[in-house]
Amino acid sequence: MSVTPEPERPESQPQNVVANLRELQVSEVVPNAQNPRLDFPQDELDRLADSIDLEGVLVPIVVYPKDRKFVLVDGERRYRCARDLGHVTIPALITTERSERQVLQQMFNIHQIREAWREIPTGRALERLASYIEEQDGREPNDRELSDLTGVSLEQVRRLRYAITLPDEWQGYIRDGTVPLNFFWELKRNVIDALRANRPNIYAHYGEDAIKHAFVQKRLDQVITDTVSLRKMAPIIRFAAQDAEANGTEESKLDDSIRDLIEQPDATIDEAYEDTVQMMVEVDKLGRRTSSMVAVFARLLTSTAGTPDNAEVRRIGHDLIKQIGALIGVSEQQG
């Protein structure tokens, strides 16, 4: 790329210019203090530096003029590498100065078409954008609005905003990969929210913080080795509520398993699930699948009426009835 340098200074930049391609002095460029991408892993910078050292900066950075300097909107990794390699100039697209809210929104939209930012910095950026909107519009934006403004999915917005409510130590686990954000999110949905809604006495007895700390420690101790197992907590809690309601009592025989999982450091979710509700969950799934299958047969019988395919649908149905009937007959004989 060949770009002719221009001698204009930032203060003379016309405000009606949308974007102007220039070759800037690296010393004229300053990082954006509001950049949501706070983490720049050294291995990524090293790889990019090798490429820039060989080919130069092929993609212009994006900046806007402010206080006799040019503030970065996009391309901080390219800028850092060029600076550290001793480059004197760097290609840049110069846009007009805008508010911090506008810059932040633009940063989101630029980066969502590339690689995603890391989770904790992105969550903090979302909160910063929400603060700008609240200050300027006098209202707090909802998750849907933040999703629309940034291009981040609604589910991810909710997860990221939740992440920055966690204790600093746990945010550190997310940043360094010790415990993934998915773990904390599934813990919230399948344990905390489920207990609050279905077993409020247990939730109130231990308190949210103690419950979360118990499960996080299990993860750190490798008693819980994957995030998916947390989803098995929801049916244990749900069936406990159903059991208590059916018996007209506040307590369920499943409550002891829930308490053990909170109190006993070595108690595993998988073992509790297998010992308590696994068969009930399978029976529940079978009921839903049977209803779905009956609905499919009804639709196919109707849609194939008067065609040769109708006979095939009926044959499949009769074969299924025979197979299930035989299984039930064997089971009754054994019983």
Task: Jot down its keywords.
335 residues; alpha/beta; Conserved hypothetical protein from pyrococcus furiosus pfu- 392566-001, ParB domain; 4 domains; 5-stranded mixed beta sheet; 15 helices; 5 strands; 61% helix; 8% strand; disordered N terminus
Head-to-tail CA distance between termini: 81 Å
* Radius of gyration from CA coordinates: 29 Å
The biggest beta sheet, please? 5 strands, mixed
The low-confidence parts are 1-17
Order of helices and strands: EEHEEHEHHHHHHHHHHHHH
Tell me the overall shape.
elongated
Regarding quaternary structure, what we see is single chain
- Walk across the major sheet and give the strand order: 1-5-3-4-2
Look at the structure and give the mean pLDDT. 85
Helix content: 55-70%
* Count of individual domains: 4
What portion of the residues fall into strands of 2 or more residues? 5-15%
- Strand elements, count: 5
Class by alpha and beta content: alpha/beta
What's the total helix number? 15
